[in-house]
Automatic annotation (TrEMBL):
This is SDR family oxidoreductase. It holds the Pfam family adh_short_C2. InterPro entries: NAD(P)-bd_dom_sf, Sc_DH/Rdtase_CS, SDR_fam. It comes from Mesorhizobium kowhaii. PROSITE patterns: ADH_SHORT (PS00061). The lineage of its organism: Bacteria, Pseudomonadati, Pseudomonadota, Alphaproteobacteria, Hyphomicrobiales. Signal peptide: none annotated.
Amino acid sequence: MVSQAEFEGRAEFEGKTVVVTGAGGGLGTAIVALMAQRGARVIGCDQSSEALKSPHLASRHVFDLLDRASIEAAIGAILDRDGVPDILINNAGWTRAETLSALTADKIEHELDLNLTGVMMFADPLVKAMAGRGSGSVVFISSVNAIAHFGNPAYAAAKAGINAYAKAIAVELGRNGLRANVVCPGSIRTAAWDHRLAKDPEILGKLQRLYPLGRIVNASEVAEAVAFLASDRASGVTGVVMPVDAGLTAGCLPFIDDILGA
């Protein structure tokens, strides 16, 4: 039997071009490093050049998901400079409106534009180019918020739209050699949690009782799921929404502890 280390040493993404959005973020950095480690030529995309300092990046593109002209220019630059990607990993996203009471018309528009409209506008031309070539794998980073409600209502609505979009790609373009899947992380300890920690330094400890594994996931665990779905190991997998959430969406552990176990 081949060990995991031996398998990884085979560089399963050798000769593959991978586009990663949000490449400079906590999860994006882990995805970029893992894909590069396994042989991919990684193209990083983010909203600033400062976010794209990783030595693992072979090419860098700066654009803003809220700016249509910026998106269109980046797509042209990617196709001209780097060619049609073999793998597209749509990772960029952001939220701050954490409850219904925090929503305003501007916040709704901002979060839907960033997390759904901008993502689709960027992905659509690349997805169609991949389908035109006759092969490709697309992975979207969604959220457990798209599966059950854990707050962030506008973000959750946008991520639910991403899940639906991925299934549309899987169904309509499967015959063109394209696969599309979704990873739905639970809480990940990245800089995205810093604003919550600033309000409550004990918040990570409070999270533990919600998760059947007794902890939240780390970025490398989510990156492993992304790499699997992107790879030929998942050649028969498409249209799947995969939680990577330490068991959060499997059931309500506090109900077991507080009600049934009382």
